[in-house]
Design brief:
ABC_transptr_CydD, binds adenosine-5'-diphosphate, 60% helix, 10% strand, four-stranded antiparallel sheet, ABC transporter transmembrane region fold, ATP-binding, binds magnesium ion, ATPase-coupled lipid transmembrane transporter activity, membrane, Rossmann fold, six-stranded mixed sheet, 595 residues
Length: 595
C-alpha cells in the first residue's frame, strides 16, 4: 500500500473490487449501441424502400418485424447497464466501508475518541456514499466514451467519409470544453465537503450541549450560528450545482451544433449543391437517414459523461479524506503468531511498564511492576489522573507501552509476552464492563449475542440469571425477542449495566476488566450488580477500577496508583491497618478517601 498514492490512483485501485459489474455495465452499453444500429437500419430501409424505391409491402416485412424487438432489447439493455453500474458501486462501497470500520477497530477506541464523532460517522457514511456516482456511472461511462464513438464511426465511414470527418472533428470539442468547466468543479467540491463536516460537528456539539446552553440562556445565539452555517452551506451547494448545470448546458450546445452541421451537409448533398464526401454509390435516403439517426449516439456518451463529471470530483474529494485512515500505518504485529487459547486462569506479569499518550511529556504509567495472580480479583484505586484507565487500556492491548513487557501465562504453558499473541486472540479472552453499557437497537437476544454469536436461548437465559436479570426477563412481553433501545423498550442504567454483565458471563472470558461497574446506580441496582459481580469474579482474573468501598470487599488485593506509579499493593486489611495508607478510611464510608 503506497503511502504517496494520489486519490486518483486510489480510486483506480479500488475499482477492481466491483470490476465484474462495471464490465457487465460496459458490455450492456456497447450492446445497446449495436441494437440502435439495427433500429437505424430498419427505419432507414423502410423509408428508402417506401419513399424512393416504391417497393411493395412484402419487402418491408423484415425491417418491420425486427423493429419492435429491437426497441424492447434496447430498453432492457439501457436498464441493465444502469443496474449493473449501480450494483458495482454498491459492492465497492460495502467493501470500502468494511475496510474503514476494520481500520477504525484496529486503530482502537483511544484513536476513535480523539476524532470528532460527527467527522467519523460522516466519513463512514457520507464520504463512502460519495463514491457511488463515480463507480456506478462515471467509470463505465468513461469506457463507453472510448467504445461507442468508434463503433459509430466505423459504421458511418464506409457510407460517407465527409460525415465521418464531421463527427471526428466535432467530437473532441466536447471533452475540451468539459475539462475547462471541470477544473473549477473539483476545488468547489472539496470546499463543500469541508463545510459539510464543519456543519455536522457544529450541530452535534450544539445538540450535546443543549441543556447547558439552555440553562445559560444562549441557545438563541447557537440557533443563529446553526442558521448561519447552513446558509453558507446552501450558497456553496448552489454554486456547485450551477457549475454542474453550466457544464451540461455547454455540452448540449456543442452536441446540437455538431448534429446540425451534419444535417446541413446531408441537405446540401440532396439538393445537389455538394458533390463530395461520398463514394461511388452516392448518398441516398437510406444512407442519410442511417447517419442522422446514429449521429446523436456519437455524442451521447460524452454528454452523459459530462452529467456525471461532478461525481468524479466528488469521489476524488472523498478519497482524499478517506485515504489517511485507510492508509494509516497502524501498530501491527505480524499476524503469523500461532493461535493462542488459554486453558486455565491467566496470570499477568507487568514488568517495568511505561506508557505515554502521544504528545504528552510525562508518561501516564511509569515503570509499573506487579503480578496479577490467576483468578485473583485486583481492585485498582487512586485519584483521578493516577493512570487507572491507562492501565486498562494497556491490558486491553489498545495502548502499547513504550517500555517494559506484559507477560501472560495460563499455568500450562510457559509465559508469553502480550506482543507475541494475536490481538484478536487476546481480546477474545477479555470481558469488559464499563460505566456506560452499550445497548444496540435490536432484541434482547441480539444484545446478548454480541458476546457470543452462537449461544442458544437456554444459555442466554442462564447468563441473564447470573446477571440477576431473570425477574426482568419474566416481565418482558416477548421475552428474549423483546426489542430494546431506540423504538423498543427503555432500559434503565442498572439494567443496561447488568446486560453488560450478562455479556461478560456469555463470553466466558478468562480476564474480566471492570471500570467503575456500579457508578451512578441507585442502591437497589447497585446491590443486584454487586451480586452478579461476585459471581462473575469467581474463577476469573479480574481487574476492577473503583472508588467504592463496597466493591473493594470483592477484591483479593488492592493496588493504589498515584501519578502513574504503584503506591501500594496489598490486601484491604493490610492497607487499612494502623499506619497503612487507608488507615483513616472507616468501614462505613462509601468512597475511598485518598491520602
Ligand atoms: P485515571 O483513569 O486514573 O483517572 P488516566 O489513566 O485516565 O487516569 O490518566 C492518566 C494520565 O494520562 C492523566 O495525566 C491524563 O491526563 C492522561 N491521559 C489520559 N487519557 C489521555 C489521552 N487520551 N490523551 C492524552 N493524555 C491522556
Ligand atoms: Mg479514568
Amino acid at each position: 500500500m503506497a503511502s504517496n498514492e494520489t486519490p486518483r490512483q486510489w480510486l483506480q485501485r479500488t475499482a477492481s473490487r466491483g470490476a465484474r459489474w462495471s464490465r457487465l455495465s460496459v458490455i450492456a452499453g456497447t450492446l445497446s449501441t449495436l441494437v440502435l444500429m439495427v433500429q437505424a437500419w430498419c427505419i432507414a430501409t423502410i423509408a428508402q424502400r417506401m419513399v424512393i424505391d416504391g417497393a411493395d409491402f412484402s419487402s418491408l416485412l423484415i425491417p418491420l418485424l425486427l423493429l419492435p424487438p429491437a426497441f424492447i432489447a434496447r430498453g432492457l439493455l439501457v436498464r441493465a447497464r444502469t443496474l449493473c453500474g449501480a450494483r458495482g458501486g454498491i459492492e465497492i462501497r460495502q467493501s470500502v466501508r468494511k475496510e474503514l470500520l476494520e481500520r477504525i477497530a484496529v486503530l482502537g477506541p483511544l484513536w476513535a475518541r480523539r476524532q470528532h464523532s460527527a467527522t467519523l460517522s460522516n466519513r463512514v457514511w457520507d464520504q463512502v456514499d460519495a463514491l457511488q456516482g463515480f463507480y456506478a456511472d462515471y467509470r463505465p461511462q468513461m469506457l463507453l466514451c472510448a467504445i461507442i464513438p468508434i463503433i459509430i464511426l466505423a459504421a458511418v465511414a464506409p457510407l460517407s467519409w465527409a460525415a465521418a470527418l464531421i463527427l471526428l472533428a466535432t467530437g473532441p470539442l466536447i471533452p475540451m470544453n468539459m475539462a475547462m468547466v471541470g477544473i473549477g468543479a473539483k476545488k468547489r467540491q472539496e470546499d463543500q465537503f469541508l463545510e459539510m463536516g464543519r456543519m455536522s460537528r457544529h450541530f452535534l456539539d450544539t445538540l450535546q450541549g443543549l441543556s447547558t446552553l439552555k440553562l445559560f440562556d444562549i441557545s438563541k445565539r447557537q440557533a443563529n450560528e446553526v442558521h448561519t452555517a447552513s446558509e453558507s452551506f446552501r450558497r456553496r451547494t448552489m454554486r456547485v450545482l450551477r457549475l454542474a448545470f453550466l457544464s451540461s448546458t455547454v455540452l448540449e450546445f456543442f452536441a446540437s451544433v455538431s448534429i446540425a452541421l451534419l444535417a446541413l451537409y446531408l441537405g446540401f448533398v440532396y439538393l445537389g449543391q455538394f458533390n463530395f464526401g461520398m463514394y461511388d454509390h452516392g448518398i441516398n435516403l437510406f444512407i442519410g437517414l442511417f447517419i442522422l439517426i446514429l449521429a446523436p449516439e456519437f455524442y451521447q456518451p460524452l454528454r452523459e459523461l459530462g452529467v456525471h463529471y461532478h461525481a468524479k470530483a466528488e469521489a476524488e474529494a472523498a478519497a482524499e479524506d478517506l485515504m489517511p485512515i485507510l492508509n494509516r500505518r497502524v501498530f501491527e504485529r505480524d499476524n503469523d503468531q500461532p493461535p493462542w487459547q488459554p486453558r486455565a486462569g491467566l496470570t499477568l506479569s507487568l514488568e517495568g511498564l511505561t506508557a505515554r499518550y502521544a504528545g504528552r511529556e510525562s508518561p501516564a504509567l511509569t515503570e509499573v511492576s506487579l503480578t496479577i495472580q490467576a483468578n485473583e480479583t485486583l481492585a485498582v484505586i487512586g485519584p483521578s489522573g493516577a493512570g487507572k484507565s491507562t492501565l486498562l487500556n494497556v491490558l486491553m492491548d489498545f495502548m502499547h507501552p513504550e517500555a517494559g513487557t506484559l507477560r501472560v501465562s495460563d499455568g500450562d504453558h510457559p509465559s508469553r509476552a502480550l506482543t507475541d499473541i494475536r490481538p484478536d486472540d487476546w481480546q477474545h479472552q477479555i470481558a469488559w464492563v464499563g460505566q456506560s453499557a452499550v445497548i444496540v437497537s435490536g432484541t434482547l437476544a441480539d444484545n446478548l449475542r454480541l458476546a457470543n454469536a452462537h449461544a442458544s436461548d437456554q444459555i442466554l437465559k442462564e447468563a441473564l440469571e447470573q446477571a440477576a436479570l431473570h425477574h426482568w426477563l419474566a416481565e418482558l412481553p416477548d421475552g428474549l425477542e423483546t426489542r430494546l433501545g431506540e423504538g423498543g423498550r427503555a432500559v434503565s442504567g442498572g439494567q443496561a449495566r447488568r446486560i453488560a454483565l450478562a455479556r461478560a458471563f456469555l463470553r466466558d472470558a478468562r480476564l474480566v476488566l471492570l471500570d467503575e461497574p456500579t457508578a451512578s446506580l441507585d442502591q437497589e441496582s447497585e446491590r443486584l450488580v454487586m451480586d452478579a459481580l461476585s459471581r462473575l469474579c469467581k474463577g476469573r482474573t479480574v481487574v476492577l477500577l473503583t472508588h467504592r468501598m463496597e466493591l473493594l470487599a470483592l477484591a483479593d488485593r488492592v493496588l493504589m496508583l498515584s501519578q502513574g506509579s504503584v503506591q501500594a499493593l496489598d490486601t484491604l486489611e493490610a492497607l487499612r491497618a494502623p499506619g497503612g495508607p487507608l488507615a483513616r478510611s472507616t468501614k462505613s464510608e462509601t468512597e475511598v478517601r485518598h491520602v
